[in-house]
Specification:
7-stranded mixed sheet, 6-stranded parallel sheet, 18 strands
């Protein structure tokens, strides 16, 4: 079978690799169909493994952690059946550390991620634990691959304790930010989305944002203050990874409000610590997703598949995965979700790039 193998930093080649064979105990074999490319993939691809947990052997590695697949061998599990389409929760926690015991396996310091520490979806067959597969019914492959990024948004809002009717500001309208807008609006919140790219602000509106904004200077605070009648939003979610957003979020949020940080960054920013006691705000980190979040993400994506379809901007076949990565890393402004199609036949995979 064919696999896109990241052999060493910056070097991805299509290789013939051996099949997994029949499913081993507790595992299932799936046939990937669509794999979303995500900003976190670039760290491993470019050799920036310091951002990834643990000192492990990362190369060679088959990447891909946003996976839609069809079960071809359910092994000894009855959770899923042969032929069923599944989304893959890529997290394999250790099960014994404090976060695992506390029901928060998503921050297990020893977790392994499919597509990062274990081979992922950018290959024609994949073996994963039965606990990782979630049936998605008649959801299409692109939307199924979007369940994983949607689960990040679901988890962030759970961390932020969002409730219906609240006003929330979401910084960043990339795939995670847009999924956060969607999940918050679906939960009955009123959402203001902040992003510099007009096309992304338009998508945020389509996914349920009441207002969109981009004002790098003082204008943004004013806009948000007006929108919330001077009080400030009860929840601010930062998904952009821009270190400078957190100080703005802390100033903007309502007293007794919450700020959730999802965006990854190795940068730093100057904060005014006095704002914390002054307003008694909660500043909360959010990482990955639990199995419960993942199940909720399957429901969220299923219920909103029509508007989510607008996010899949570019498709590449497996044979052109390296090109897809380079294209994604060049951050073209019209790109939102770039998808690699695997095993999906010639018609779909041979379309020129940039269509749809
Ligand atoms: Zn991702
Ligand atoms: Zn653990």
């Amino acid at each position: 079978m064919l696999a896109a193998v990241t052999r060493s930093p910056g070097e991805m080649v299509i290789e013939d690799v051996s099949d997994p064979g029949p499913a081993r105990a507790g595992n299932v074999i799936v046939r990937p169909e669509a794999v979303g490319i995500c900003g976190s993939d670039f760290h491993l691809f470019s050799g920036d493994v310091g951002a990834l947990s643990g000192a492990r052997d990362f190369y060679p590695r088959v990447q891909g952690h946003e996976v839609s697949a069809v079960v071809i061998d359910p092994g000894d599990t009855d959770i899923v059946a042969e032929g069923e389409r599944v989304a893959i929760w890529p997290l394999l926690p250790c099960g014994s550390c404090y976060p695992c015991r506390a029901g928060r396996p998503n921050v297990c310091p020893r977790f392994r991620l499919v597509g990062v520490h274990l081979d992922g979806g950018l290959q024609q067959l994949l073996e994963v634990p039965a606990s990782a597969v979630f049936g998605v019914g008649d959801l299409d492959p692109d939307c199924t691959a979007f369940v994983e990024p949607a689960s990040i948004a679901v988890h962030a809002l759970a961390r932020g304790r969002l409730t219906s009717g609240e006003q929330a500001v979401v910084f960043g309208a990339g795939p995670i930010g847009l999924a956060t807008v969607l999940a918050a609006a679906a939960a009955g919140a009123r959402v203001l989305s902040v992003d510099p790219i007009p096309a992304r602000r338009d998508l945020a509106k389509r996914l349920g944002a009441e207002r969109v904004a981009w004002a790098p200077e003082a204008g943004l605070l004013e806009t948000v203050r007006d929108w919330t009648h001077g009080e400030g939003p009860l929840l601010v979610v930062e998904t952009s990874g821009e270190p400078g957003v957190l100080p703005q979020a802390v100033e903007m949020v309502s007293a007794a409000g919450r700020v959730v940080v999802v965006g990854m960054s190795s940068g730093s920013a100057a904060l005014r610590p006095g704002a914390f006691p002054e307003k008694e705000i909660d500043v909360i980190g959010s990482s990955c997703a639990t199995a419960e979040d993942f199940l909720n993400a399957v429901r969220l994506v299923s219920a909103n598949r029509a508007c989510i379809a607008a996010l899949f901007s570019h498709h590449f076949p497996l044979a052109r995965t390296a090109e897809a990565f380079e294209f994604a890393m060049s951050r073209p402004p019209d790109a939102v979700k770039i998808v690699v199609t695997v095993n999906l036949g010639q018609l779909k995979t041979h379309r020129p790039e940039g269509d749809r």
